[in-house]
Amino acid sequence: MPLFSRGLFVFGEFLDHPKIKSIENGEYSQYYNLMNLFCYGTFELLSTNRSAYPDLRPTQVRKLKQLSIIDEAHNQKHIPYGLLFKKLDIASSRELEDLVIELFYLKAITGKLDQQKALLEVNSAIGRDIRIEQIDELHQKLDSWGVRVESVLAHIANEIKMVNERRYESELHQKEILEASLSIKEALRGQMAKSDAQSLRMDMDDILIHPDLLESRVEATRQSSSNTESVGDRDVRNRITVFKNLRHGKSSKQQ
């Protein structure tokens, strides 16, 4: 009989077979009820109405208890041992763990046993037979899952858009800083050609790292030569101001 097969957990095709359906009412109805129990029921259901079913062999009882564990795995992901003890009429942790370990081996359930916390932690479980009246409920769950997936995808797309926008802004800002530094170098070359070489001779890289030093040098040069700020000095000062603002995170549009 297929109920003995270790790796078999779905029985709907057997229940729908004409010969099985023919015994639904009458002398052998208990066996039809048994097949129905293995399709949709649990060990608890057997315990509450044993007269509706024939006597089960130990291997059949074991299979029904495993089906009950799979059923509970669809309801919650962290199942206390105590709950399974009650539902399966088991008093020994060893007996329960043997049932679960076999389910792991057969890949009917994936997860782990936490013996310290006395928990079965479920990652996934195979499906069981579905009654016709459960199909609408299944459709609703699938629709709800689809809505959640669309929401997650929309959120991810929005995050990607924001990252791309920030990357573009960062690249634009770096470009503005580079252009400003080149502009200062160009202005300095012009000033140094017109001024005393000793008064403005500074390392260009040091100037860009410490623009305040350049400002003080320009100011000292202006005071030593004249109290009037030249057009060239003013141009250099303006370019330094733009560069400093960019260094502090202000784009040219904010200035």
Highlighted features:
COPS7/eIF3m; PCI_dom; elongated; signalosome; mainly alpha
The first-to-last residue Cα distance is 84 Å
Structural class: mainly alpha
Spatial sequence of strands, sheet with the most strands: 1-3-2
Number of strands: 3
**Which sheet architecture does the biggest sheet show?**
3 strands, antiparallel
Helix count equals 12
Helix content: 55-70%
Residue fraction in strands: 5-15%
Domain unit count: 2
Low-pLDDT windows of residues: 196-202
InterPro entries: COPS7/eIF3m, PCI_dom
Family: Belongs to the CSN7/EIF3M family. CSN7 subfamily.
Keywords: Signalosome
Domain PCI: 1-127
Textual characterization of the structure:
The chain has 255 residues and is mainly α. The protein has two domains: 2-129, no CATH class; 135-247, no CATH class. Helix content is 65%, strand content 6%. Strands 1-3-2 form a three-stranded antiparallel β-sheet. A hairpin with a 4-residue loop joins β2 and β3. Residues 196-202 have low confidence and may be disordered. Belongs to the CSN7/EIF3M family. CSN7 subfamily. Residues 1-127 form the PCI domain. Keywords: Signalosome.
